[in-house]
Design goal:
By secondary structure, this protein is of the alpha/beta class. It contains 14 helices and eleven strands. The strands form three sheets. The protein has a five-stranded parallel sheet with strand order 9-8-7-10-11, covered by helices on one side. Helix 4 runs antiparallel to helix 5. It starts with 20 loop residues before the first helix and ends in a 5-residue tail after the last helix.
Amino acid sequence: MRYFAIEILFDDFYDVGEAGSGLVAFAAATGVMPLDMPESVLVRFKGKLQDGMTLRDLVNAIPYYAIKQGLLTVAKQGKKNIFSGRILEIEGLPDLKVEQAFELSDAAAERSAAACAVQLDKAPIIEYMTSNITLMKWMIANGYSDARTLGRRIKAMEAWIAKPELLKADAGAEYAAVIEIDLADVKEPIVACPNDPDDVKLLSEVSGTKIDEVFIGSCMTNIGHFRAAGKVLEGKSDIPTRLWIAPPTKMDAMILNEEGYYAILGKSGARMEMPGCSLCMGNQAQIRKGSTAMSTSTRNFPNRLGIDTFVYLGSAELASICALMGKIPTVAEYMEQVKVVNAKAADVYRYMNFDKIAAFKELADTVTV
């Protein structure tokens, strides 16, 4: 058995499954259905995150260290990928907020992993669930459908909070591979290069590259990333790049607007997109043909963000500096520009705990489940 640190709560449990026609026929003939559990690859972080480094740099550190160990290759011919079809298990970052853990797990698909589990302590999970209970009660009060489904989720979360339990790896569990990453060794940002999320390099290897467009958005971002971009770009206007801003949810957009970050980013010349996937899916807009971009999205496959484009993937902090400078900065330039974010880190990286936001809590408190 493997651990799953982020508990998944289902509305109801039914003895109903879904499978391909071959498995269904096998089950009908024999009365049983085989279910193979994939092997796991363990990524174990140790130490403390260095100044100026972000969770996105750790996302890119995973393929970077896998390449160093000979477990992953970039070339398509004879490609080696230890993560393909396996479960990516991540240890060593137990105090991450759940929103931060999503950043690591969302990128598992780019590793071609079958699933991802992040080992967290109970405290950040309880904090996240408490916040979401308030959010779901607020949704009920606002007439969201289906109130019964939301009510069942609320009760399930309350029951887990009352008796929190986490699954853990068996003692002596075996893995297809173990990748150890010492955070003391991650001293500069790591980016994915055009046009392959596996083609990761240190910032110093790509600095100076001209950047035409920047996209800050997708499921790899949270509200803190947009505040960070706002801090970098505050007071600036007529930046040399075309900057696209797309918060992942309407709630993010609402809070960012209330806090004045929409005004700051808009003044810089940013295009404020509708909350959602936006350029990440390429289904609402695209960057200019043949342009070079820095993006916070999950993937940079050819033609995904635009036709004949060259797309780098990195953190929102790095992306906003690229937007400001019109190029990928040197490590020294990055460290200098990111100081303004680090100086206000406690405020910048506040996550949306709805149970502490009056506009949500006051209405949520009127709901009894």
